[in-house]
Design goal:
Blueprint (H helix, E strand, L loop, with lengths): L2 E6 L5 E5 L19 E4 L4 H4 L25
Antiparallel strand pairs: 1-2, 1-3
The structure holds zinc ion (ZN).
Length: 74
């Protein structure tokens, strides 16, 4: 299973989770403060999104840095 990185929007700490791809965008609790106000980070986007993705905007492609590849279908 791939490791995904998440950021807590309440305490601003990052943590990793080993999850299946189908679970990647499912809600996850912060392992520091147990907040559910978390977001999956996509490191390739760090340059222009501060390394975080707004919760609920889970349509970003996992495998490339663009929104225009066959795997994301956008
Ligand atoms: Zn937290």
């Amino acid at each position: 299973m791939p490791i995904y990185e998440y950021i807590c929007l309440d305490c601003d700490k990052k943590f990793d989770a080993l999850r299946s791809m189908s679970e990647a965008d499912a809600p996850i609790c912060c392992e520091y403060c147990q907040s559910e106000h978390t977001s999956r980070t996509i490191s390739l986007f760090a340059a222009h999104s501060e390394g975080r993705v707004v919760a609920g905007a889970g349509n970003a492609c996992n495998t490339c840095s663009t929104h225009h590849c066959s795997s994301c279908g956008i």
